[in-house]
Amino acid sequence: MEQLRQESAEVETNLVRRSGALAEQRKLARATWQDVRNALKPGEAAIEFVRFDYHDGKQWTQNGYYVALVLTPEANTGPYLVPLGEARQLESDTLQDYWKLVAEVPAEGAGMHFYRAFWKPLEARLAGHRRVYISTDGVLNAVSFAVVPAEDGRLLLDKFDIRDVFTTKDLLHPAGHSAENSAVLLGNPRFDLEASRPIAKLANDRSSPAPPVGEMGHDAIPSSPQNSECPDLPPGGVLCPLKGTETEVRNIFALLKQANWDAKPPYTQESARKEVIQKLQHPRLLHVATHGFFSPERAYKLPGLAADLPSPIEDPMLRSGLMFAGADSALKGEALPNGSDNGVLTASEAATLDLQGTEPVVLSACETGRGRIENNGEGVFGLRRAFQEAGSESVLMSMWKAPDLETQDLMTLFYQKWLSGEDKYDALRDAQTKMRDAIRARWDGEDRPYYWGAFVLIGR
User: Fold this and answer.
1) Which of the listed residues 138, 172, 206 is the one where a domain comes to its end?
2) Does the bond joining 360 to the residue before it have cis omega, within 30 degrees of 0?
3) How many CB atoms lie within 10 A of CB 435?
4) Apex CA 238: angle with CA 236 and CA 244, to 5°?
5) Could you give the CA distance from residue 258 to residue 213 in angstroms, rounded to a whole number?
6) What predicted TM-score, i.e. pTM, was given to this entire model?
7) Domain residues for 135?
8) pLDDT of amino acid 239
9) Cα dist. 429→128, 324, 410 in Å?
């Protein structure tokens, strides 16, 4: 493994020399706070949350701390430093308060402790600045700030135009999406491909044309005594089929065609294969609706390959990823259909994709925003990092297991608004606001962020 790491570092060094995109990243690495300040417009602010370990001058202590650096266009002497407190407490009681807020049934008063710890100390410096760019660190990488309530009863979604970025230096990177409005969509993979069944060529193995937008609806899942949580799970199956995602991608395809995009019919069921992703050539939009996975444990062994590995997988980029057609066989360690891949795309593999200029990558899957959280400013090692490294300008992903039907509705609303000409951040905000109103009407005025607030758009 150490030899492979060294070889990987050498390859990356050579790529930096040859690639204009990576050369641009090196240039941004030398950016200063003045450069970021000058990129901010009146009424905008940028926040860098930082988690760091503390050295007392003799040794590293067991204490870690959170601070926030707040920068506005008016700053003359640098970002304003706001101490937030010890990591030990903030990552336990405060974070637990947040998870109670986004539970399926939120606890009364949940979220206020989190607000007072991480956001209220910043508000004095944010006065008069509605649009706020946020770069998170530590456990905050798993948080959607939009759903957090303030003391006046409103959510931060109502008070601020919050825009998550990988780093505030993203403000210096010129937007450069693909010149053509090309799109690739995948959904409802057939996870239980039979090993004896030959796989058709992708050109002849595509889904049927999408239904009109007016036919949006949710596929009914028949009841079955086999698995109460996944009633449609086939005998011997591992992954629950995602019928609703096929409706989702077909509705999106119809919207794209109405907007005159060069969108291919969605890859679904047998054609929703890993190799489709691996052969991409920087489409403007990539939408993937499938199961995501992440294991926080270093002892985790890649499903289906455990017998071949002499030691646990420590690399978090190998412990997170997406599932495609045939993944059941890989998870069970069985033979795969002739001509197919293993159906499991790891974050490490995703980082090698050709997504320069893609905006956005939409991961309509559970907990795709998760990964191993590094406490040294390196962010989240997982799918988020992978698609950033692959060149995507932005990634839309979920912070928790979002309900299937509500996700389908949210995605349709997002694309309707984005394709009508709205900025993609505004499109997500408006879609979530509309979904929130519908959820509150369903629950007699009670707000339940669990149903509408899981997705966060990160990038530029």
Assistant:
1) 172
2) yes
3) 19
4) 115
5) 10
6) 0.81
7) 34-172
8) 83
9) 20, 29, 10
